[in-house]
């Protein structure tokens, strides 16, 4: 499992322009910023299944919530979780 932080949440300011025969779709280069979001994700190596959750803040509470989600998702399996040494992975909770 791992986290990807500081993902920009962007929206296009204009709709995608319609296709015409022989012309690829066109999009404007302008966008609206909606802040950032983090993504917590885990990969089940034996099935290739990815479990992911977007979170507003990457802290010990959201990490523990994600671990509980993994426990519910893989209820009857043994989990082997590999993390880096990020401070939120070392919470005493």
- Main sheet summary: 3 strands, antiparallel
Mean pLDDT: 80
Unreliable residue runs: none
Order of helices and strands: EEEH
Helix content: 10-25%
Structural class: alpha+beta
Biggest β-sheet: strands ordered side by side in the sheet: 1-2-3
Overall number of structural domains: 1
Radius of gyration: 19 Å
Cα(first) to Cα(last) distance is: 19 Å
Shape: elongated
Write a brief structural summary:
The protein has 93 residues and is of the alpha+beta class. It has one helix at residues 60-73, and strands at residues 2-12, 31-44, 49-55.
Task: Describe the 3D structure.
- The chain has one helix at 60-73; strands at residues 2-12, 31-44, 49-55.
- 15% of the residues lie in helices and 34% in strands.
- Strand 2 and strand 3 form a beta hairpin.
- The chain contains 1 helix and 3 strands, in the order E-E-E-H.
- The chain has one domain.
- A 3-stranded antiparallel beta sheet has the order 1-2-3.
- The protein is an alpha+beta fold and 93 residues long.
- It starts with a strand and ends in a 20-residue tail after the last helix.
- The protein is elongated and about 55 Å long.
Helices and strands, with pairings:
Layout (H helix, E strand, L loop, with lengths): L1 E11 L18 E14 L4 E7 L4 H14 L20
Q: Top keywords for this entry?
A:
93 residues; alpha+beta; 3-stranded antiparallel beta sheet; 3 strands
């Amino acid at each position: 499992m791992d986290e990807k932080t500081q993902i920009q949440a962007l929206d296009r300011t204009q709709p995608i322009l319609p296709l015409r025969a022989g012309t690829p779709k066109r999009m404007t280069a302008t966008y609206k910023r909606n802040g950032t979001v983090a993504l917590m994700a885990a990969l089940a190596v034996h099935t290739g299944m990815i479990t992911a959750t977007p979170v507003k803040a990457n802290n010990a509470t959201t990490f523990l919530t994600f671990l509980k989600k993994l426990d519910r998702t893989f209820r009857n399996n043994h989990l082997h979780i590999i993390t880096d040494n990020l401070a939120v992975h070392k919470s005493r909770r």
